[in-house]
Amino acid sequence: MTKDLAVHSVAKSFGGVTALSECSLEVRAGSITALIGPNGSGKTTLFNCVTGFYRPDQGEMRFGETVLTGLRPNQIVHLGIARTFQITRIFKNMTVLENMIVPVRQLGMRTLFTAGIKGHERERAEALLEFFGIAFLRDEMAGRLSFGQQKLLELAAALMAEPTLLMLDEPAGGLNPVMIDRLTGYIRELNADGMTFLIIEHNMGFVMQLCEPVIVIHRGRVIARGTPAAVRANPAVLDAYLGD
Amino acid sequence: MLIQLDSVVAGYGSGGDILRGVDLSLEQGAFTCLIGPNGAGKSTLLRTLCGLLKPRAGRILFRGQDIGGQRPDLLFRAGIAHVPQGRSTFPQMSVWENVAMGGYSLRDPQLLRKGLAQAAKLFPIVTEQRHKAAGLLSGGEQKQVEIARAMVTQPTLLLLDEPTLGLEPRAARVVVDKMRVLNELGTTILLVEQNARMGLSAARWGCIMELGTIKLQGMGDQLLNDPQVKRLYLGQAAEPEQPAPDGEPDARRVL
Asked: Do A208 and A232 meet the contact criterion of CB atoms below 8 Å apart?
């Protein structure tokens, strides 16, 4: 069962800089919701609040009935919310295959690999690596991969956790167009199986063909929400983000 | 030829070859865009050209001289500037200090002044935000500062690695326009771009790289319209959306 994500009046400042103020939005279970807006509008800060990397100054966040506010990132992952990062955060000195296992093992680092990587876990990891075209790199140190390959690895690893809500921070950035198409198809497939998505992205072609609704934030607040066509025709959005 | 690569092979540490025999030449004043799948070796090629990586085999001629394996600082002085992928500003330093760092290698104060003035003229943001810490600028503004910094020495060859990565559409367009201007003023540009449609439209010449070699090259618009290239490298994402009905903004402008 997937759940709605509700963000209510969340605020977050860093020193004197306000990143989010009175930010409220909802991600409906089963949707592929896009979050767009100018650089520095608070998109990634919102991700960091929802996933427990930042503690908001005020406001409340719920995933279904569960209050997320105050939970730690690892607790939030176990509720079924996984994410990727704009600048990838993989373990550079671990192999590609080892990186895939990290999200699904809840053990300490020391015991992480003593059980070996086999059975269903291994099959799933291999299948995901295969899909993203990086299976041939399974035994490479992840730090050796190109930027785009590291992004694919991070995405594949996030999927290992079988989240119900997957939050992607600029998944198309740095990927070649053919891979973007495959990613689009894959997100659609996972969504058809019930996975909810919240996607930050600047590639408007990708957003407009995949996502609905599209939520636009500017200066830490939501300024528009609607279908791709409605958002694209919204004067406030054109002014703040898309330009003329 | 400004730069000519013959069968260049390169890789990292004890790892396998990433570049597996690259043949490429750029004329003075060219604007070439390099596209291709992730892991094809595009960034590695730029790093080899600016001296960060030593070729294992093959030859790199810059103005007729073999420069393969020369130190990056010497190549920078010789006129090859590299703007790497991601953010490379010094976030705590002011915008002006960041740009001035680009002239670090210039010993002639007059040349330095001239270079700085030129960079500031091309990128007004350098003057407008001169006292602001670079880390406080938006992504698009920081990228402009990085390119301005690379322009202080007035390089002959500018290597740009995905300069529009992570930028909002408007900021990406500004960066593309700046590249065009720099090229029109005579700077030779080798651009790596995953946003293949945008890169190929901005550049005059396009090269497709795959598995460490140049697979195909041609005029930018020719490649854009080639059915095979579309299918293999540009994908659906490269297709412009259907023109919006009358009265609605043109969707193609936001891609």
From this structure: yes
Burial of A47 (0-12, 13-18, 19+ CB in 10 A): buried
CA distance B153 to A149: 33
The one-letter code for the residue type at B247 is G
CA of B120 to nearest chain A CA: how many angstroms apart?
23
Report, in this order, helix, strand and coil percent for chain B, each rounded to 5. 40, 25, 35
Give the Cα separation of A220 and A218 in Å (integer): 5
* Entry field: residues in chain A: 244
Top residue of B144, B168, B193 to mutate, by most chain A CBs within 10 Å, is B168
Q: What is the DSSP string of B220-248?
A: HHHHHH-HHHIIIIITGGGSPPPPPPTTS
- Mutation pick from A35, A169, A176 vs chain B, by most beta carbons of B within 10 Å, is A176
Question: Which candidate, B41, B48, B164, B52, places its Cα nearest to that of A145?
Answer: B41
DSSP H or E segment with residue B150? helix B139-151
Helices (H) and strands (E) in chain A, counts: 9, 10
Q: What is the pLDDT along chain B (255 residues), one digit of tens a residue?
A: 999 999 999 999 888 999 999 999 999 999 999 999 988 999 999 999 999 999 999 999 999 999 998 999 999 999 999 999 988 999 999 999 999 999 988 888 999 999 999 999 999 999 999 999 998 888 889 999 999 999 999 999 999 999 999 888 888 999 999 999 999 999 999 999 998 999 999 999 999 999 999 999 999 999 999 998 988 888 875 454 443 334 333 333 333
Count of residues in chain B:
255
A16 to chain B, any CB pair closer than 8 A? The answer is no
Give the C-alpha separation, B152 to B121, whole Å.
11
Task: Look up residue B195 and give its two tokens.
Answer: 């946003």
| Separation of CA B52 from chain center | 15
**Chain B residues within an 8 Å CB radius of A205:** 237, 241, 255
DSSP A111: G
SS3 at position A175: coil
